[in-house]
Amino acid sequence: MRILVFTVSSWNSKVGSNTWAALLNGYDPSQVANICIRDEIPDSPVCSRYFGISENKIIKSVFNRKIKTGRETSALSSSASDNTDLEEHNTRYQKMTVKRRYSMLMARELVWKLGRWKTKELNDFLDDFHPDIILHSMEGYIHLNRIIEYAIKRTGARAVGYIWDDNFTYKQYKNLGYKVYRYFQRRSLKRLARKTDEFFAISPFTKSEADKFFGINCHVLTKPLSKIPTVTEYNGALPIRMVYTGNLLIGRDKSLIRLCRALKEVNSDREMICLDVYTKTVLPESVSAKLQSSYCHIHKPIMQSEALKKQNEADVLLFLEDIDGKDAKAARLSFSTKITDYLSAGKCIFAIGNCDTSPMQYFIENKAAIVCDSDEKILRGLNQLTENTSILNEYAKNACEAGKKNHDPQSIRKLLFGVLDCVYTKNKGK
């Protein structure tokens, strides 16, 4: 069966979000195509055909209706124009992430509404590939949901949705701008849900709320391990090497500052723990000044393969979410792809965040991380690492067991393709 996957980001080794690529790894790439809406160049071997809709060109198409906004693309076919679009795209999103204004998000939706994405190039791609199944995540991007609906109607394909984040409740924030924007997100997702045949949810926590809201029955499907983990025992060398790979948005920078304050106290006599952070987030000077020190080093982003290597070389892997700030509930239903990457490494995990969220509940239930939701617990956890280093091996073992139990690639792909085969058979029987 031919599978078309819709994503926000491209399947690119420099982009950490790779759940779909991980799930479809091993399936015939000639039967997989992808449509994304970011100005990024794909390079994943899991998929054979890529179509990109450029947001940069969508903006320009509001004033110039003849401009081509989408095309089939690959790493080999990228051009200087693509690089310019990518730079402008990155600059725009860096500005948006410094301060999240819902007026800007609504303006973006208006641009996509007025812009020209329904093009001959998109139609030709859909008609030529002619998918049997369309896979999509239930995203909060209203314009992406509209494009998916169009593709379902044009191709006649069956659709399977994946819910891996809270894009449909009012429980994350309290401000008016969020509630107005969320109202339109919910309408968009309900409309898309009515055109979708089956659903996956990233965790039981997510399934429970999604089932009630959409009136559906999700299959729980998580990201598979990248490799079967084995415990590499800590050798006792000091300083203990802690590593974080990922963005520092939605309050993670604040939790990192809290960690650095505790590290300063732990390292007061000698350097017991050092921290390396690899991130693409552009931090304000006020934040950078609180982080940079002899024991905390902020590095430029690295490719996914290099990030996995750094994780395997570390003694402790750091997981960050906001604890009690305005973003404390942002991850309440999500399940970060970083979790399975960390479990695959078979190392001790040090998790900081609000305990009323799906990721932190997962760590607690599986005893797969040292969990900290306050300044006192962060300091206590760091002291545990330095005073009783056997705890590193203990939590590494727990992480391995959680990975093998909950993220076995064979079991996960069996569930995935069992559902897809069922949907495909129904489609053929029409």
In short:
46% of the residues lie in helices and 15% in strands. It has 430 residues and is an alpha/beta fold.
Structure in words:
With 430 residues, this protein is of the alpha/beta class. Helices cover 46% and strands 15% of the residues. It has helices at 19-24, 55-61, 80-98, 102-114, 120-129, 142-155, 176-194, 204-214, 252-266, 285-291, 304-313, 337-345, 358-366, 375-387, 390-406, 409-428, and strands at 3-7, 32-36, 49-53, 70-73, 133-137, 158-163, 198-201, 219-220, 240-245, 273-278, 296-299, 316-320, 348-352, 370-372. Strands 4-3-2-1-5-6-7-8 form an eight-stranded mixed beta sheet, sandwiched between helices. Strand 7 (198-201), helix 8 (204-214) and strand 8 (219-220) form a beta-alpha-beta unit. Helix 6 (142-155) runs parallel beside helix 7, helix 9 crosses helix 14 (375-387) and helix 12 crosses helix 15.
Blueprint (SSEs and pairs):
Layout: E1 3-7, H1 19-24, E2 32-36, E3 49-53, H2 55-61, E4 70-73, H3 80-98, H4 102-114, H5 120-129, E5 133-137, H6 142-155, E6 158-163, H7 176-194, E7 198-201, H8 204-214, E8 219-220, E9 240-245, H9 252-266, E10 273-278, H10 285-291, E11 296-299, H11 304-313, E12 316-320, H12 337-345, E13 348-352, H13 358-366, E14 370-372, H14 375-387, H15 390-406, H16 409-428
Parallel strand pairs: 1-2, 1-5, 2-3, 5-6, 6-7, 7-8, 9-10, 9-12, 10-11, 12-13, 13-14
Antiparallel strand pairs: 3-4
Helix pairs in contact: 6-7, 9-14, 12-15
